[in-house]
Amino acid sequence: MEQMTKSANILVIDDDFGVRESLKIILRDKYCVSTTSNVDEALVSMNVIRPEMIFLDIKMPKVNGLDFLRQMSSANSTIPIIMITAHPSIETTITSLRNGAFDFIVKPFQPAEILNVAEKALHYSIELWEKDLLVNNLRKAAQQNFFSTTEALLHAIDAKDSYTAGHSKRVSELSAFVAKELGKNESEVEVLRYSAYLHDIGKIGVGDLVLTKPSYLTQEEFQLMKRHSEIGYKIIAPIKFMEKCLPIVRHHHEWYNGKGYPDCLQGSEIPFEASILSIIDAYDALTSDRHYHKKYSHQKACEIIMQGINTQFVPTLTEKVLAIIDRYHDACIQHKRTKNP
What we know:
Largest sheet: 5 strands, parallel
Radius of gyration: 29 Å
Number of strands: 5
Helix content: 55-70%
CATH superfamily of the largest domain: Hypothetical protein af1432
Order of helices and strands: HEHEHEHEHEHHHHHHHHHH
CATH class of the largest domain: Mainly Alpha
Strand order of the largest sheet: 2-1-3-4-5
Number of domains: 2
Structural class: alpha/beta
C-alpha cells in the first residue's frame, strides 16, 4: 500500500499561488502533486496524467470550481474531488455534495486535515478501481460464455450443411480486415467482426431440407430461408452487449434497390456496416462450393458483385470493399507461397 500511495497523482486547481504551494508542500512527501491556476490548464494537465484525486477551489475566474465539478459529474468521472473554499455556506456545501464532491475543506486548513482527506480519497479511488476491474472481469466471462454457446450453435449449422462450414469464421475475419482498412476504430471493428461471425446464427431455425437442398430453392422454400436474418436478430436481441450488432445481423440481406429482406430497406436506409457485410458475405459464398454452384475464382466473384452495383450492392462502397478484398486475397496467396515454397 505504501508503494501505491507514493505513486498516486494529485491535481490541485486553485488560482491562489499560496494555497497551491501550501498543498504541494503538505502532500509531496507521500504523493505526486501537480498544480494549475485554472480549469483550462487542469484539463490540459489531465490529458497527460490521470489524477487519483483533485483538490478544487470553488471561486476562480472564468470557470469556477462548481462548474468544473458539474462537468466532471456529467462525464461520469470517478475521480474523487475535494472542494476548497474560504467562504463556506450550507448552500455551497449541499450543492457541492449533490454534484459529486467527495469532501469539503475550509481555508485556512491544517496539514493533518489535508493528509487525512487525501488518504480517504485514495482508498475510495482504489476501491472504485477494484470494483471496475471485477465488473469488467465478470463482463468478459459473460461474453466468453455467450460466444462459446453461439460457437456451438454455428458448429451445429455447419454439421447440418458441410458446404457452409467455416463460412461465418471466414466472413468475420475478412470483415474485420475490411473495417480496419476503411479506417474504423477498434470498437467499430469489433462490432462488425462479431456481427459477421453471428450473421447466419438464425439458420439454426431453418429446416434441414431447405438448408441442404442440392438445387435452387422454390419461392416457398426461399421464404423460409429468408427468415434466418430475423431469427438471428431475435437470438441475440436479449444480449445487452450485442446491441450494436442487431441492425447488422438483421439487415445484411437488404438490397440497395429495396428488393432485399427482411424489411425492404433501400439506399441510405441500410446500415453502413450491414452494406459492408453483404458484400463480404456474397464474396465468400461465391468463392466457396455450394449445393447449387461450384466455387468461382476470386476474379469472377468480384466481377459478379460489380454487376450487382446499384441493384444489390451500394455504389462506391462496393468498389472500395472489393479493392480491399483484392489486397487481402493477394496477401493470402503470398502467405501460402512463403509457407509452402
